[in-house]
Amino acid sequence: MSDPAVPTELLDPSPFPQEVHVIYPIRRRYWLHLLLFLATIFTTLIVGARLQYNFSLGLPQFHSDADLFPLRWALEQPSRLILGIPFSVTLLSILLAHEMGHFVYAQRHRVYATLPFFLPAPTLIGTFGAFIRIRSPIRSRAALFDIGIAGPIAGFVVAVPVLIFSLMNAWPAHTSGDSGLAIGFPLIFDAVWKMFPAHSHLRLDQLSLSPSAIAAWVGMFATALNLLPGGQLDGGHIIYALTPRWHRTISRLTTLALIPMGIFLWTGWLLWAVFLLLSLMRHPPVPEYPPLSPARKALAWFALLMFVLSLAPEPFAGAGLLDVIK
After folding, report:
1. Residue 4 has pLDDT above 50, yes or no
2. Based on C-alpha coordinates, what's the Rg of the chain?
3. What angle (nearest 5°) sits at the alpha carbon of residue 228, between those of residues 264 and 111?
4. Is the predicted pLDDT of residue 20 greater than 70, yes or no?
5. What is the pLDDT of residue 2?
6. Which value, to the nearest 10 degrees, does the dihedral of the CA atoms of residues 244, 246, 247, 250 take?
């Protein structure tokens, strides 16, 4: 494959002036990608260590008495960081698979993209996720579709086996004392849990979940967020590739749907609505012809299935705007 970072021309066989896209060479900052990745390993190890500690004692995953980001607790005994390996490896594997799905298909379509940027953060999960940057024009709807859908599929494929294995090893949670921060489960958790009839008498919220199961939950939640049909999210790219003329309308409808969800279910949906508004529902232009093949259109239904299965409308109980301001 030729280097996508050299000047490139889109040749037009028509007698009209040719459209020329010049892509200037950009040096890859490998040191920055590595630094951010190592920092994210550290922050997710801290969170994972606390999750494993709580899990081993039968405490809630997110105990209300614990720090939001237990840095001091972890550094009191640095050996505790070893406990965080299962969570860190699982979560970063899902995020890395997602971003490399985008990257690999960008390379296949000769679109210049950066390597993944990981975002360490002192949060409940130790990261704000990861992203890649597209640095050259996307020249067809097929390329846009492939790049957009490859990430969610790759992350989903990694998360599902982890979820199955983790739920196989879940056990009943202690019911006494503080229940901690309750999380809401997407449909795929219910579907997988029903595969184990021996435990069917227990509900998901009655389980003590391992750090790997929490990582799978985060991975599914990230998949659903990215597949929101609007703006320049993965779901927005898929919608634009399917029907460019409806992209703006669907983005607006998605934003409107997120507002009541933020008021009644989870305040974070309001932030995502603002994110879509700030993007003005615009999408970089992509040639409308040729249209998508029937196979790609069929694959779009799988993207919809992933979205429905991985979406948790109320990811945290009692976190809607009305609950917060009470």
Report:
1. no
2. 21
3. 155
4. no
5. 40
6. -160
Q: Could you tell me if 179 and 114 are in contact, meaning their C-beta atoms sit under 8 angstroms apart?
A: no
Return the C-alpha torsion angle 285, 26, 34, 156, nearest 10. 20
Q: CA-to-CA distance for 191 and 115, rounded, in angstroms?
A: 34
117 beta partners: 131
The residue type of 318 is G
pLDDT tens for 94-113 read 999 999 999 999 999 999 99
Write the CB contacts of 107 (distance below 8 Å, at least 6 apart in sequence).
Answer: 1, 4, 113
- Per the CB < 8 A criterion, the answer to whether 205 and 170 are in contact is no
CA distances from 4 to 108, 111, 150, 223, 292 (A): 10, 6, 20, 28, 23
CA–CA separation, 111 and 83 (whole Å)? 40
* CA count, 13 A, side-chain hemisphere, 13: 0
**Residue with tokens 């985060």, as numbered in its chain:** 218
Angstrom distance (rounded) from CA 151 to CA 129: 13
CA torsion 243-244-245-247 (nearest 10°) is 90
Please report, for residues 229, 245, 251, the alpha-carbon distance to residue 283 in angstroms, rounded to integers and kept in the order given.
Answer: 12, 11, 10
Place of tokens 């614990």: 66
pLDDT at 175 over 70: no
d(CA 320, CA 266): 4
What CA dihedral angle connects 173, 179, 181 and 187, to 10 degrees? Answer: 40
User: What tokens appear for 187 in the block?
Assistant: 């449909």
235 closest CA partner among 217, 215, 216, 255? 255
Q: How many other β-carbons are positioned within 10 Å of the β-carbon of residue 29? A: 13
Low-confidence winner among 4-13, 158-167, 176-185 (lowest mean pLDDT): 4-13
Sorted by where each begins, the domain ranges of the chain are: 8-324
Residues 238 and 141: their CA atoms lie apart, in Å, by 9
The secondary element (H helix, E strand) that includes residue 166 is helix 141-168
